[in-house]
Protein backbone atom coordinates (compact mmCIF):
# COMPACT_ATOMS: atom_id res chain seq x y z
CA UNK A 1 0.00 0.00 0.00
CA UNK A 2 1.32 3.41 -1.00
CA UNK A 3 0.66 6.21 1.48
CA UNK A 4 1.43 9.91 1.33
CA UNK A 5 1.87 12.55 4.01
CA UNK A 6 4.29 15.28 4.97
CA UNK A 7 6.98 15.08 7.60
CA UNK A 8 9.95 16.66 9.33
CA UNK A 9 13.16 14.65 9.36
CA UNK A 10 14.12 14.08 13.00
CA UNK A 11 16.99 11.63 12.57
CA UNK A 12 18.79 9.46 10.04
CA UNK A 13 20.73 6.29 10.83
CA UNK A 14 23.10 4.71 8.26
CA UNK A 15 22.13 1.20 7.20
CA UNK A 16 24.82 -0.57 5.25
CA UNK A 17 26.97 1.45 2.85
CA UNK A 18 24.39 3.66 1.16
CA UNK A 19 21.00 3.13 2.80
CA UNK A 20 19.36 5.09 5.60
CA UNK A 21 16.71 4.58 8.25
CA UNK A 22 14.91 7.90 8.38
CA UNK A 23 12.68 9.00 11.27
CA UNK A 24 10.02 11.60 10.48
CA UNK A 25 7.54 13.44 12.64
CA UNK A 26 4.29 13.40 10.67
CA UNK A 27 0.85 14.87 11.43
CA UNK A 28 -1.10 11.67 10.84
CA UNK A 29 1.37 8.89 11.71
CA UNK A 30 3.28 10.42 14.61
CA UNK A 31 6.85 9.16 14.68
CA UNK A 32 7.37 7.32 11.39
CA UNK A 33 10.51 5.27 10.67
CA UNK A 34 11.17 4.47 7.03
CA UNK A 35 13.81 2.70 4.96
CA UNK A 36 15.46 4.81 2.25
CA UNK A 37 17.27 2.84 -0.46
CA UNK A 38 20.63 4.25 -1.65
CA UNK A 39 20.12 7.98 -0.94
CA UNK A 40 23.84 8.31 -0.17
CA UNK A 41 24.76 7.15 -3.68
CA UNK A 42 22.90 9.88 -5.47
CA UNK A 43 23.25 13.63 -5.68
CA UNK A 44 19.58 14.09 -6.47
CA UNK A 45 17.10 16.06 -4.34
CA UNK A 46 15.97 12.75 -2.84
CA UNK A 47 19.18 12.53 -0.84
CA UNK A 48 19.17 16.20 0.16
CA UNK A 49 15.55 15.95 1.28
CA UNK A 50 16.63 13.55 4.02
CA UNK A 51 18.84 16.04 5.83
CA UNK A 52 17.82 16.55 9.48
CA UNK A 53 15.01 19.10 10.01
CA UNK A 54 13.95 19.09 6.34
CA UNK A 55 10.21 19.51 5.88
CA UNK A 56 9.04 17.39 2.95
CA UNK A 57 6.12 15.73 1.24
CA UNK A 58 6.78 12.02 1.41
CA UNK A 59 5.43 8.74 0.07
CA UNK A 60 6.15 5.33 1.53
CA UNK A 61 5.28 1.78 0.58
CA UNK A 62 4.51 -1.17 2.82
CA UNK A 63 1.82 -3.17 4.51
CA UNK A 64 -0.36 -1.39 7.06
CA UNK A 65 1.54 -2.94 9.97
CA UNK A 66 5.01 -2.91 8.37
CA UNK A 67 7.59 -1.84 10.94
CA UNK A 68 9.88 -0.22 8.37
CA UNK A 69 8.07 0.81 5.16
CA UNK A 70 10.16 1.85 2.18
CA UNK A 71 10.44 5.56 1.47
CA UNK A 72 9.71 6.02 -2.23
CA UNK A 73 9.47 9.79 -2.58
CA UNK A 74 10.52 12.89 -0.66
CA UNK A 75 9.98 16.38 -2.06
CA UNK A 76 11.31 19.34 -0.10
CA UNK A 77 8.80 21.87 1.20
CA UNK A 78 11.31 23.81 3.30
CA UNK A 79 14.91 22.73 4.07
CA UNK A 80 15.66 24.77 7.24
CA UNK A 81 19.19 24.96 5.85
CA UNK A 82 20.12 28.04 7.88
CA UNK A 83 19.50 26.18 11.15
CA UNK A 84 21.81 23.35 10.12
CA UNK A 85 24.45 25.82 8.96
CA UNK A 86 24.67 27.59 12.35
CA UNK A 87 26.17 25.37 15.04
CA UNK A 88 24.68 27.19 18.03
CA UNK A 89 21.25 27.16 16.41
CA UNK A 90 21.42 23.50 15.42
CA UNK A 91 22.50 22.48 18.94
CA UNK A 92 19.52 24.29 20.43
CA UNK A 93 17.14 22.57 18.05
CA UNK A 94 18.79 19.19 18.70
CA UNK A 95 17.44 19.33 22.25
CA UNK A 96 13.81 19.57 21.19
CA UNK A 97 14.29 16.99 18.43
CA UNK A 98 15.70 14.50 20.94
CA UNK A 99 12.86 15.27 23.36
CA UNK A 100 10.32 14.68 20.59
CA UNK A 101 11.85 11.31 19.66
CA UNK A 102 11.83 10.24 23.31
CA UNK A 103 8.11 10.81 23.84
CA UNK A 104 6.18 10.66 20.55
CA UNK A 105 4.86 7.12 19.95
CA UNK A 106 5.36 5.47 16.58
CA UNK A 107 2.36 5.46 14.23
CA UNK A 108 0.18 7.52 16.60
CA UNK A 109 -1.17 10.72 15.08
CA UNK A 110 -0.43 13.95 16.92
CA UNK A 111 -1.18 16.91 14.68
CA UNK A 112 -0.70 19.42 17.49
CA UNK A 113 2.82 18.22 18.26
CA UNK A 114 3.67 18.28 14.55
CA UNK A 115 2.32 21.81 14.18
CA UNK A 116 4.18 22.95 17.30
CA UNK A 117 7.51 21.68 15.99
CA UNK A 118 7.01 23.11 12.52
CA UNK A 119 6.07 26.57 13.82
CA UNK A 120 8.95 26.50 16.31
CA UNK A 121 11.48 25.68 13.58
CA UNK A 122 10.24 28.56 11.45
CA UNK A 123 10.42 30.90 14.44
CA UNK A 124 13.96 29.80 15.35
CA UNK A 125 15.05 30.16 11.74
CA UNK A 126 13.89 33.78 11.84
CA UNK A 127 15.67 34.54 15.12
CA UNK A 128 18.10 31.94 16.41
CA UNK A 129 19.38 34.21 19.19
CA UNK A 130 16.13 33.95 21.12
CA UNK A 131 16.22 31.20 23.77
CA UNK A 132 12.60 31.58 24.80
CA UNK A 133 11.33 29.46 21.90
CA UNK A 134 13.22 26.38 23.12
CA UNK A 135 11.78 26.62 26.64
CA UNK A 136 8.34 27.34 25.19
CA UNK A 137 8.54 24.23 23.01
CA UNK A 138 9.52 22.02 25.95
CA UNK A 139 6.63 23.30 28.04
CA UNK A 140 3.98 23.11 25.30
CA UNK A 141 5.21 19.73 24.04
CA UNK A 142 5.12 18.16 27.50
CA UNK A 143 1.64 19.60 28.01
CA UNK A 144 0.44 18.02 24.74
CA UNK A 145 1.63 14.56 25.76
CA UNK A 146 0.46 14.90 29.38
CA UNK A 147 3.82 15.25 31.16
CA UNK A 148 4.05 18.98 31.90
CA UNK A 149 5.14 19.87 35.45
CA UNK A 150 2.45 21.40 37.67
CA UNK A 151 3.38 24.80 39.04
CA UNK A 152 -0.01 26.48 39.49
CA UNK A 153 -1.30 24.46 42.46
CA UNK A 154 -0.28 21.82 44.99
CA UNK A 155 0.11 18.51 43.17
CA UNK A 156 -1.33 16.51 46.07
CA UNK A 157 -4.25 18.46 47.56
CA UNK A 158 -4.89 20.82 44.67
CA UNK A 159 -4.52 23.95 46.79
CA UNK A 160 -4.22 27.01 44.59
CA UNK A 161 -2.89 30.44 45.40
CA UNK A 162 -0.04 29.16 47.57
CA UNK A 163 1.42 32.09 49.52
CA UNK A 164 4.99 32.27 48.33
CA UNK A 165 5.96 34.37 51.32
CA UNK A 166 4.66 31.82 53.82
CA UNK A 167 4.76 28.42 52.11
CA UNK A 168 7.24 29.26 49.36
CA UNK A 169 7.20 27.80 45.87
CA UNK A 170 8.85 24.43 46.37
CA UNK A 171 9.18 22.18 43.36
CA UNK A 172 9.55 18.46 44.10
CA UNK A 173 11.25 16.79 41.16
CA UNK A 174 10.08 13.27 42.03
CA UNK A 175 6.47 14.49 42.02
CA UNK A 176 6.79 16.81 39.06
CA UNK A 177 4.94 19.58 40.86
CA UNK A 178 4.95 22.11 43.65
CA UNK A 179 3.58 21.07 47.04
CA UNK A 180 2.06 23.18 49.78
CA UNK A 181 3.60 23.20 53.24
CA UNK A 182 1.11 20.67 54.65
CA UNK A 183 1.60 18.16 51.83
CA UNK A 184 5.37 18.55 51.77
CA UNK A 185 6.01 17.11 55.23
CA UNK A 186 8.56 14.30 55.20
CA UNK A 187 9.33 14.89 51.55
CA UNK A 188 12.83 15.12 50.10
CA UNK A 189 14.44 18.54 49.83
CA UNK A 190 12.68 20.67 47.21
CA UNK A 191 13.99 23.05 44.61
CA UNK A 192 13.05 26.61 45.51
CA UNK A 193 11.53 28.56 42.63
CA UNK A 194 10.64 32.23 42.45
CA UNK A 195 7.24 33.78 41.91
CA UNK A 196 8.51 35.22 38.63
CA UNK A 197 9.31 31.75 37.29
CA UNK A 198 5.83 30.48 38.22
CA UNK A 199 4.26 33.43 36.37
CA UNK A 200 6.53 32.97 33.32
CA UNK A 201 5.75 29.25 33.20
CA UNK A 202 2.02 29.97 33.33
CA UNK A 203 2.32 32.45 30.46
CA UNK A 204 4.34 30.09 28.28
CA UNK A 205 1.91 27.26 29.01
CA UNK A 206 -1.09 29.20 27.74
CA UNK A 207 0.35 31.52 25.09
CA UNK A 208 1.16 30.62 21.49
CA UNK A 209 4.46 31.34 19.74
CA UNK A 210 3.30 34.65 18.28
CA UNK A 211 2.27 35.99 21.67
CA UNK A 212 5.45 35.10 23.55
CA UNK A 213 7.38 37.50 21.34
CA UNK A 214 5.76 40.32 23.31
CA UNK A 215 7.57 39.44 26.53
CA UNK A 216 11.23 39.88 27.43
CA UNK A 217 11.98 37.91 30.61
CA UNK A 218 15.35 38.38 32.25
CA UNK A 219 18.20 35.96 31.65
CA UNK A 220 17.93 34.97 35.33
CA UNK A 221 14.28 33.95 34.98
CA UNK A 222 14.98 32.06 31.76
CA UNK A 223 17.90 30.22 33.34
CA UNK A 224 15.85 29.30 36.42
CA UNK A 225 12.92 28.01 34.38
CA UNK A 226 15.25 26.15 32.01
CA UNK A 227 16.86 24.37 34.97
CA UNK A 228 13.44 23.33 36.31
CA UNK A 229 12.42 21.91 32.93
CA UNK A 230 15.73 20.08 32.53
CA UNK A 231 15.42 18.49 35.99
CA UNK A 232 11.85 17.45 35.23
CA UNK A 233 12.78 15.90 31.87
CA UNK A 234 15.82 14.15 33.34
CA UNK A 235 13.63 12.57 36.04
CA UNK A 236 11.11 11.30 33.48
CA UNK A 237 13.65 9.72 31.12
CA UNK A 238 16.13 8.85 33.94
CA UNK A 239 18.97 10.63 32.16
CA UNK A 240 20.03 13.99 30.79
CA UNK A 241 19.23 14.53 27.12
CA UNK A 242 22.39 13.70 25.15
CA UNK A 243 22.20 16.98 23.27
CA UNK A 244 21.85 18.92 26.52
CA UNK A 245 24.83 17.17 28.07
CA UNK A 246 26.90 17.91 24.96
CA UNK A 247 25.98 21.59 25.05
CA UNK A 248 27.00 21.85 28.70
CA UNK A 249 30.31 20.17 27.90
CA UNK A 250 31.18 22.98 25.51
CA UNK A 251 32.63 25.26 28.18
CA UNK A 252 33.16 28.74 26.91
CA UNK A 253 30.86 28.23 23.94
CA UNK A 254 28.48 31.19 23.56
CA UNK A 255 24.89 30.78 22.46
> Helix fraction?
25-40%
CATH class of the domain at 1-79: Mainly Beta
* Count of beta strands: 9
Strand content bin: 15-25%
The secondary-structure class comes to alpha+beta
Query: Could you tell me how far the N terminus lies from the C terminus, measured between alpha carbons in angstroms?
Result: 46 Å
Q: Radius of gyration in whole Å, from Cα?
A: 20 Å
Which fold does the CATH topology of the domain at 1-79 refer to? Answer: OB fold (Dihydrolipoamide Acetyltransferase, E2P)
CATH superfamily of the domain at 1-79: Nucleic acid-binding proteins
Order of helices and strands: EEEHEEHHHHEEEEHHHH
Helical segment count: 9
Largest sheet: 5 strands, antiparallel
User: What is the averaged pLDDT score?
Assistant: 89
Poorly predicted ranges: 251-255
Q: What is the annotated CATH architecture of the domain at 1-79?
A: Beta Barrel
Shape: elongated
Strand order of the largest sheet: 3-2-1-4-5
Can I get a quick summary?
The chain is built from 9 helices and 9 strands.
Any overview of this molecule?
The chain has 255 residues and is an alpha+beta fold. The protein has a domain of 79 residues: OB fold (Dihydrolipoamide Acetyltransferase, E2P). The chain has 9 helices and 9 strands. The chain has a 5-stranded antiparallel sheet with strand order 3-2-1-4-5. Strands 6-8-7-9 form a 4-stranded mixed sheet, covered by helices on one side. β1 and β2 form a beta hairpin. It starts with a strand and ends in a 6-residue tail after the last helix. The C terminus is likely disordered.
Amino acid sequence: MLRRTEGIVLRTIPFGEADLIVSFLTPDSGLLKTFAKSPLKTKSRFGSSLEPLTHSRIAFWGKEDASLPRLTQSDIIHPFQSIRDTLSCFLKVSEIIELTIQFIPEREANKKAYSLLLHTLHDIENDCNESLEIIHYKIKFLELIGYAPMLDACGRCGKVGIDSQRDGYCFYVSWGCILCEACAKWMDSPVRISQGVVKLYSDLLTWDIAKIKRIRPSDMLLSELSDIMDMHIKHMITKTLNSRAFIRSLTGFRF
